[in-house]
């Protein structure tokens, strides 16, 4: 384990830059995972990080000590620093004092849709994007495609909300969703409050692609027109719409219910 | 319509205090609804506010003008103020410049649970609480009971996330959930990742109470032990849990599916 003591240390300066700038993370193809849960998930599912960074005040924490041991066994760099330096990097208030520097995965260009997938058109809220990734992973859907207007998936807020889903799902960003939908080999289902076909009346016990849209405007009209089905989640009462992440969960788990009841 | 021009105006000082302090809102039994959508919903579902507050820059907006007209027809106070004063009140960035001051509803002490309900035990995140209120309202569930540790439902973040659900749902706060569950006349279902009974194997085509817990720890153990059923949402893949608001949506809409397919 090495120790950093100065804000002028080159590694520290790099980390500070990454921590503070979404553009820097995109450009470097790297991001930071903050907290024990995300780091444990990464170790279990993807292996060692590029670098394990720990606050000195966290060294005595048994979960942190165990993670450091695993990183050192895998010959990953481990660097400790004073709590004040660590806290200037971290976006987590009252966090435990542990983060991983990781490379964001580089994926091949998206091919033809053949397996169940989620398509996110212009989703804005990082919490919604993270929750959708988490629900998809829990429902066994491992392909995610995001339009260029969708929140950057490897941002700290999306990572926190997804609770490790990033490490079991292939996330394609900046995708031309219209091209993807046109070429799809499976049905593409868009949810819409104006649709007349009920979600429950569609055969979901097969691979389908779920097309979900912007929190306020929904799926863009031209994209919606390309979908194989437009479906509605039947509702009661005077509130006519659902949060997009809630809507996604209902769709994914209805698909899983149909698959499992076959 | 009156106009405020000074930060020393007594109404402005009251509004500023309410806008900045959750404690002040609780104590006054009043809150602020910010934005056209929430104000329109309130007018449609609950009627006129105590006071309609508008930024001078928003007066030309046709939706705002329509809302002001409705307020004046109902003899509600309408007060305009310079944009700078309004923006110092509002928590919405780039908002349209309209808010309502309303009284938060005063409800009778909770009786015995007989209608479908949602019980929130120590939920922390305002976005989750708001999403759950919205899903409940859309699924036709109109009774919500919150433990004292749950996020205050009439805060701006919860109001924004619930998109008007507050105005069709009865929200009881600071409720002793253990007493409520013990006396319930309907089954109380808690979701738990450790449960063995599948959500889909329970008869939900009847009134039930959904017990949902803290984002990290779930429902408190003593409370969980009082539930009639502990149910699990079957999942696939390596991610074993769902966001609590996603979980709530799956439960509420499975109940509605069963009710509608009877």
From TrEMBL, chains A, B:
The UniProt keywords, alphabetically, are: Methyltransferase, Transferase
A molecular-function term among this protein's GO annotations: RNA methyltransferase activity
Q: Which Pfam families match?
A: SpoU_methylase
User: What does the record list as GO biological process?
Assistant: methylation; RNA processing
Taking the record's annotation, the residue ranges forming a coiled coil are none
- UniProt domain tRNA/rRNA methyltransferase SpoU type: residue ranges: 117-252
InterPro entries the UniProt entry points to: Alpha/beta_knot_MTases, Ribosomal_eL30-like_sf, rRNA_Methyltransferase, SpoU_MeTrfase, tRNA_m1G_MTases_N
* PANTHER family given in the database record: RRNA METHYLTRANSFERASE 3, RRNA METHYLTRANSFERASE 3, MITOCHONDRIAL
The name on file for this protein is RNA methyltransferase
Q: Which organism is it from?
A: Massilia violaceinigra
Q: What is the lineage of its organism?
A: Bacteria, Pseudomonadati, Pseudomonadota, Betaproteobacteria, Burkholderiales
